């Protein structure tokens, strides 16, 4: 996982004793970045790996959680699961998805399409 690798390499500089053994589980949170703009006034777009912190370290330092990350990744996905069964989130009968012969591939494509459509509606709500 790219984000985890980036996080571990960043943490290795600060907390070498806390670095988990590869394959070992660890607790982390996604926190707000310390800087939102660079020296030239441009907005920074930090990756998940740059915003990850060990849970206990974030608590000690009083770091604020990035609630938008959790909202976008968790709550919207859960809500989308409930509303995708509405007909307006289904692909049109004439769409490419409906022409797929393999029923497993077709179902997966329909589900992905409905999820994306429902998520975009929820984000605009």
TrEMBL record:
This is 1981_t:CDS:1.
């Amino acid at each position: 996982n790219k984000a985890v690798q980036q996080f571990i390499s960043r943490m290795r500089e600060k907390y070498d004793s806390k670095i988990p053994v590869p394959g070992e589980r660890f607790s982390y949170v996604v926190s707000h970045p310390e800087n939102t703009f660079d020296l030239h006034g441009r907005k920074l777009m930090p990756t998940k790996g740059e915003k990850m912190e060990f849970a206990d370290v974030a608590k000690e330092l009083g770091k604020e959680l990035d609630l938008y990350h959790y909202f976008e990744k968790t709550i919207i996905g859960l809500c989308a699961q409930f509303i995708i069964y509405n007909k307006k989130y289904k692909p049109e009968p004439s769409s490419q998805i409906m022409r797929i012969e393999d029923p497993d591939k077709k179902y997966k494509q329909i589900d992905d399409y409905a999820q994306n459509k429902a998520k975009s509606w929820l984000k605009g709500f």
